[in-house]
């Protein structure tokens, strides 16, 4: 090992003081700040969720009245979508690991990266201001004309916040695209990149192409609300349904911004913990791009009952079905990765396995909704609520958590208690299923969403769901404790605790400020995990000595 | 008034099984069939995936230093990729197709369907019949195609009748429609399924399906005073039917609109200031005008948000409501 | 990628002298100036794509409303001054020329040429905004605004219906007329002169004959040209920043990337206007 590794200097302790973090240009520090911000907003959005679920424990008022309830579910949705899930993986794990996985010192535009983070903070501040000045009770989807005419909440401030967050997202995507195109280590061609990067790249394309349309939509909504410009007001010749088209043109691709990075994380996990390269690498890589592309063509499947034409509905449904193919391919490839693998059941792998169940249900229930005739009955019921929570929370969020557990030793240089991690995972997944599975049945039985009051026959589903929600609270507290306590009492992490084969495992834990002590050069396949073996003494996975008759020119540089 | 009290006549979810309420329209069976087609396919694929995962985990779990190494050579197979893409597609194509035909059925009212106009407004439904009758429940004859032509007075709403499996948004500034043919008599839930503000979850009414021979008679009866009722009693029923109580209390509390409990400045016969500063007595003419054209003379201190009842509240309704208002001491 | 420099790595060496001296403009996470320039260029193009998509929402709204209500657009475009619009188009086109020339000057190291070009571009931008101000203030005074504020005065109504006076095209003259009107008549809302009963009747007839919801045209007009104007102002700020750096002599053949990137931005701003002008001003 070179002298640098023993100097104890890494990106965390290179410099001290809050200013050295708030004005850092280092992608790793920016990633950590995003992680802290997103996690904080997650707990805030989670409190709104618990308030919603507590209120719904009984059919009539339980702990609040109509107007407060409408604020709770709206704020829960808006905070979770705009402040948590959209940035989640790309802004934290993506920022931290994209340059490292490419063997680089930073992203293409570090100052723009810092600007993205500060824009996120400004967006969050706008939401906090909104909370203090009337809140938001339009539903996170801001449908007009309700959102442009309501006087009961501060719509303008919230929409402004979402608008600013959009730019944060655009600039992050722009940064990642240029980095992947122009800054890869020698030897790293496109098809040698880790699948996490393919996923982030596909996500970045969506961020850059879809978010501007959300921007203009929100701007039009602000102008409509404040200046009564009439664009969505039928009394002035406007069309309220047009808002829905504009809104979903972004918001459908947005859900792929949420799920693609999760797919990327899961690919990494199955590879590392099955001790073999993920099956069907090229198909998974290309399917990420296919999903990104097709995702732009299906927004109308949110509008089958909006009054849009039968022809439009038919086209949207047909194209929606095509997305099932690249998605299913991924699931089967991950499964086959485990075939004849050497499976290690650490905490991150538990999350990956749980993903199969959670995304299995989440993805399959999408079929009911893309089928036009059944969607008419299911639209705007709890079936939809359950579906999107399975994909956004059960799949995207839990994959994020799995990724955090996977990369935690690298980011912070400590190992957490793996048993406690598994307990947290088990509680989270069980709690989640208990919370949301009954909602499918409530929905098919006819329980509409966004309902403060409901008929007594739906109560049983709500009560089970609320119990599950509290289980999830305990789960997340456990997860939080497991991770945070490791910062204080965790064992020192080796360079490669899991035996990963991508570049981040070839640099110290935590990495030095410039990521590598020498520029890595890529050799071999994208995931040569089989070249590593476990050293009991150090708890580290190290590269086996090369048999002499193998590959030709092996520059000395690769890990050791 | 909370939902629980409102839905007195509806029999909850009998006969429908775990997943669905009863199938009470001609189209419900097809919708449910399609749902279960998707459902069983999903269940099968789901258990194939989970089962395989469980099996692989058990079989290939690392058990110690002597566990077999992973077979790192088996990393791709175009044949497998094609197989597991094409086979699911063969199930997806009919899924799409039946969804499409079912949707066409749902959205194509048969010729000669009985037309009822629906008005959605915050937070009630009103149904106007071809003979001019206006009621707040959806009364329909059994066994006959019924077409609802719908519009909103203010924001987006949505008519959702779970037992018929129908749903359609109700949009301001245009007309949308939905149709059904009810197969069972009874009283069933009709929900608003597009968020519309404070009392979105209370915007509930019912569909009354009756035998065709009883239909016309009941329609008249629902809109007329019963012989045993006084004008004021019928006026109270109209007050409830038109949802006046959503905004106007009768107990003195100010809501979105002023209270109708009579005192010096409220209720029938009192004088109040309008937003243009003029004084206005709440007499028969003022009430009549304000119900049909509420924005003409808005009381000072209140927002101009009352929806107009022109075309829905008739003179007979208004007269009775006035009589009722006179009793609110 | 250059393997030799990469293989040796830079370690802690941040000295700018010696055999590894590199361009002071080279940022440390890039390996070469070429890589940095290409990355910046790609980033700029992606950003411009987002700008196009940003505007596309409004073009889409325009398309939908125009196809649903062609009569509104045909009627209302009479309210716009084609001459002023055409002058603005020429101004922006010329400014694109001066901008492109400025990039060339930077590439050739012609400091004075670059400064002149930047100044000209900025002046054109101000000229554009000045004409926009004239147009907007005329509309404000004439009641040609969005939504419920749409309340055209009699002159405008006549213009739109084709019975307008010959000099109605020149807002300067229009302003003079309005100024006279201020003296000659009592002022009403927005400086509309108070009308005689005959004029009131004429105005009411013209209003009744007009299509419904003409305000929609102005909602679209102000959104599109307003957003475009904001981008012109942003361009002025960027150009001024470039001007300051150009005066300091920062640009030359080895480093002209910022001029190049801002130039691209400016061309897109121009291009958006090239689409806006015929769509709004030249409707038949």
What key phrases describe this protein's structure?
heterotrimer, A: 560 residues, mainly alpha, Cytochrome C Oxidase, Chain A, two-stranded antiparallel ribbon, 17 helices, 4 strands, 2% strand, disordered N terminus, B: 329 residues, alpha+beta, 5-stranded mixed sheet, 7 helices, 12 strands
Write the layout of secondary structure elements.
The complex is a heterotrimer of chains A (560), B (329) and C (284).
Chain A: H1 3-6, H2 18-22, H3 27-55, H4 66-85, H5 88-101, H6 110-132, H7 146-149, H8 155-182, H9 195-227, H10 240-274, H11 281-294, H12 310-338, H13 347-370, H14 372-378, H15 382-412, E1 414-415, H16 418-445, H17 459-489, E2 491-492, E3 532-535, E4 540-543
Antiparallel strand pairs in A: 1-2, 3-4
Chain B: H1 3-6, H2 28-60, H3 78-107, E1 114-121, E2 124-128, E3 134-135, E4 138-141, E5 145-152, E6 157-161, E7 166-170, E8 176-181, E9 186-192, E10 205-210, H4 212-223, H5 231-241, E11 271-273, E12 279-281, H6 284-292, H7 315-326
Parallel strand pairs in B: 1-5, 4-10
Antiparallel strand pairs in B: 1-2, 2-3, 5-8, 6-7, 6-9, 9-10, 11-12
Helix pairs in contact in B: 2-3, 5-7, 6-7
Chain C: H1 3-8, H2 33-68, H3 70-76, H4 82-108, H5 111-142, H6 154-161, H7 171-184, H8 197-209, H9 215-247, H10 257-281
Tally of domains of chain A: 1
Q: Indicate the low-confidence ranges of chain C by residue numbers.
A: 1-19, 165-191
Determine the strand fraction of chain A and express it as a percent band. under 5%
> What gross morphology of chain C would you assign?
elongated
The SS-based structural class of chain C is: mainly alpha
Alpha-beta classification of chain A? mainly alpha
What does this structure look like?
The complex is a heterotrimer of chains A (560), B (329) and C (284). Chain A is 64% helix and 2% strand. Chain A has helices at 3-6, 18-22, 27-55, 66-85, 88-101, 110-132, 146-149, 155-182, 195-227, 240-274, 281-294, 310-338, 347-370, 372-378, 382-412, 418-445, 459-489; strands at residues 414-415, 491-492, 532-535, 540-543. In chain A, the strands form 2 sheets. Chain A has a two-stranded antiparallel sheet. In chain A, strands 3-4 form a two-stranded antiparallel sheet. In chain A, α3 runs parallel beside α6 and α15 packs antiparallel against α16. The longest helix of chain A has 35 residues, at 240-274. The termini of chain A are close together. Chain B is an alpha+beta fold and 329 residues long. Chain B is built from 7 helices and 12 strands. In chain B, the strands form 3 sheets. In chain B, strands 3-2-1-5-8 form a 5-stranded mixed beta sheet. A 5-stranded mixed beta sheet of chain B has the order 4-10-9-6-7. In chain B, a hairpin with a 2-residue loop joins β1 (114-121) and β2. In chain C, α4 packs antiparallel against α5 (111-142). The relative contact order of chain C is 0.15. Chains in contact: A-B, A-C.
């Amino acid at each position: 090992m070179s002298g640098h590794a023993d100097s104890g200097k890494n990106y965390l302790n290179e410099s001290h003081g809050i200013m050295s973090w708030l004005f850092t240009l280092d992608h790793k520090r920016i990633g950590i700040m995003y992680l802290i911000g997103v996690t904080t907003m997650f707990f805030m959005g989670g409190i709104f969720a618990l308030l919603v679920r507590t209120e719904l424990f009984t059919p009539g008022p339980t702990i609040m009245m109509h107007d407060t309830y409408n604020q709770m579910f709206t704020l829960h949705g808006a905070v979770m979508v705009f402040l948590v899930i959209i940035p989640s993986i790309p802004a934290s794990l993506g920022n931290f690991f994209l340059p490292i996985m490419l063997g680089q010192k930073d992203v293409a535009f570090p100052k723009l990266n810092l600007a993205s983070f500060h824009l996120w903070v400004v967006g969050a501040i706008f939401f906090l201001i909104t909370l203090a000045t009337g809140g938001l009770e339009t539903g996170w989807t801001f449908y007009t004309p309700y959102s442009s005419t309501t006087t009961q909440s501060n719509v303008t401030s919230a929409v402004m916040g979402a608008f600013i967050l959009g730019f944060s997202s655009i600039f992050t995507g722009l940064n990642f695209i240029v980095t992947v195109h122009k800054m890869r280590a020698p030897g790293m061609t496109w098809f040698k990149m880790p699948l996490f990067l393919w996923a982030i790249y596909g996500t970045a394309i969506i961020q850059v192409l879809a978010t501007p349309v959300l921007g203009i939509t929100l701007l039009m909504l602000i102008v409509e609300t404040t200046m009564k410009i009439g664009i969505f007001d039928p009394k002035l010749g406007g069309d309220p349904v047009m808002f829905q088209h504009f809104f979903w043109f972004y918001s459908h691709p947005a859900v792929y911004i949420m799920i693609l990075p999760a797919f990327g994380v899961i690919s990494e996990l199955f590879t590392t913990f099955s001790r073999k390269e993920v099956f069907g690498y090229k198909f998974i890589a290309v399917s990420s791009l296919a999903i990104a592309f097709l995702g732009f063509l299906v927004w109308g499947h949110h509008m089958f009952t909006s009054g849009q034409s039968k022809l439009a509905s038919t086209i949207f449904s047909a194209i929606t079905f095509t997305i099932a193919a690249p998605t299913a391919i991924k699931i089967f490839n991950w499964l086959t990765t485990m075939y004849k693998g050497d499976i290690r059941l650490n905490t991150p792998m538990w999350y990956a396995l749980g993903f199969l169940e959670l995304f299995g249900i989440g993805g399959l229930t999408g079929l009911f909704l893309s089928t036009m005739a059944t969607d008419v009955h299911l639209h705007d019921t709890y079936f939809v609520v359950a579906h999107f929570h399975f994909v956004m929370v059960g799949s995207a969020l839990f994959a994020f958590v799995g990724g955090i557990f996977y990369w935690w030793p690298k980011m912070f240089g400590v190992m957490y208690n793996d048993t406690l991690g598994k307990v947290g995972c088990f509680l989270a997944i069980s709690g989640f299923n208990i919370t949301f599975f009954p909602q499918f049945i409530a929905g098919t039985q006819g329980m509409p969403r966004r309902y403060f009051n409901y008929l007594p026959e739906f109560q049983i589903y709500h009560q089970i769901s609320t119990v599950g929600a509290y289980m999830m609270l305990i789960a997340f507290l456990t997860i939080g404790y497991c991770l945070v306590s490791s910062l204080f009492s965790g064992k020192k992490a080796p360079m490669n605790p899991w035996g990963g084969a991508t570049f981040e495992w070839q640099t110290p834990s935590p990495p030095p400020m410039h990521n590598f002590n020498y520029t890595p050069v890529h050799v071999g396949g994208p995931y040569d995990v089989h070249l590593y073996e476990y050293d009991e003494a150090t708890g580290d996975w190290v590269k086996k000595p090369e048999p002499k008759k193998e590959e030709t020119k092996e520059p000395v540089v690769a890990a050791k | 008034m909370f939902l629980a009290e409102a839905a007195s006549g509806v029999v909850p979810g009998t006969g429908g099984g775990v997943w669905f309420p009863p199938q009470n329209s001609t189209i419900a069976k097809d919708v449910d069939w399609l749902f279960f087609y998707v459902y069983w396919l999903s269940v099968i694929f789901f258990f194939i995936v989970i089962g395989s995962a469980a099996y692989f985990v058990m079989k290939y779990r690392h058990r110690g230093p002597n566990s077999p190494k992973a077979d790192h050579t088996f990393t791709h197979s175009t044949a497998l990729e094609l197989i597991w893409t094409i086979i699911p597609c063969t199930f997806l194509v009919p899924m799409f197709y039946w969804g499409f035909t079912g949707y066409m059925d749902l959205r194509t009212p048969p010729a000669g369907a009985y037309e009822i106009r629906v008005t959605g407004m915050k937070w009630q439904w009103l149904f106007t019949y071809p003979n001019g009758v206006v009621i707040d429940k959806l009364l329909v004859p059994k066994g006959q195609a019924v077409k609802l032509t719908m519009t909103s007075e203010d924001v987006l709403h949505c008519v959702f009748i779970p037992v018929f499996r129908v749903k359609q948004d109700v949009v301001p500034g245009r007309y949308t429609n939905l149709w059904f043919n009810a197969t069972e008599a009874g009283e069933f839930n009709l929900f608003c399924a597009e968020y519309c503000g404070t009392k979105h979850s209370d915007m509930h009414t019912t569909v009354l399906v009756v035998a065709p021979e009883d239909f016309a008679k009941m329609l008249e009866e629902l809109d007329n005073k019963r012989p045993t009722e006084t004008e004021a009693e019928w006026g109270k029923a109209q007050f409830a039917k038109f949802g006046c109580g959503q905004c106007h209390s009768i107990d003195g509390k100010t809501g979105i609109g002023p209270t109708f409990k009579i005192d010096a400045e409220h209720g029938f016969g009192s004088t109040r200031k309008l937003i243009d500063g003029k004084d206005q007595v709440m007499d028969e003419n003022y009430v009549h005008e304000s119900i049909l054209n509420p924005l003409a003379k808005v009381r000072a201190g209140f927002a101009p948000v009352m929806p107009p009842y022109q075309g829905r509240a008739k003179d007979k309704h208004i007269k009775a409501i006035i009589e009722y208002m006179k009793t609110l001491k | 990628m250059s393997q030799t420099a990469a293989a040796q790595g830079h370690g802690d060496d941040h000295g700018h002298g010696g055999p590894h001296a590199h361009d002071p403009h080279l940022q440390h996470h890039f390996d070469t100036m070429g890589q940095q320039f290409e990355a910046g260029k790609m980033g700029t193009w992606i950003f411009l794509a987002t700008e196009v998509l940003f505007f596309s929402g409004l073009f889409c709204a325009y398309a939908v409303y125009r196809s649903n209500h062609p009569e509104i657009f045909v009627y209302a475009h009479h309210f716009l001054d084609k001459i002023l619009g055409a002058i603005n188009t020429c101004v922006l086109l010329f400014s694109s020329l001066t901008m492109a020339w400025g990039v060339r000057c930077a590439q050739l190291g012609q400091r004075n040429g670059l400064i002149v070009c930047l100044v000209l571009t900025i002046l054109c931008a101000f000229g554009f905004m000045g004409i926009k101000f004239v147009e907007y203030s005329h509309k404000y005074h004439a009641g040609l605004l969005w939504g419920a504020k749409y309340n055209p005065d009699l002159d405008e109504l006549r213009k739109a219906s084709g019975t307008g006076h010959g000099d109605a095209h020149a807002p300067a003259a229009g302003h003079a007329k309005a100024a006279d009107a201020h003296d000659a008549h009592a002022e009403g809302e927005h400086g509309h002169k108070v009308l005689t009963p005959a004029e009131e009747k004429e105005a009411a007839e013209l209003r009744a004959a007009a299509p419904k919801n003409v305000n929609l045209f102005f909602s679209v007009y102000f959104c599109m040209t307003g957003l475009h104007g904001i981008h012109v102002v942003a361009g002025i700020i960027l150009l001024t920043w470039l001007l300051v750096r150009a005066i300091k002599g920062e640009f030359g053949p080895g480093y002209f990337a910022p001029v190049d990137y801002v130039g691209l931005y400016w061309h897109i701003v121009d291009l958006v206007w090239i689409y806006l002008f015929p769509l709004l001003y030249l409707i038949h």
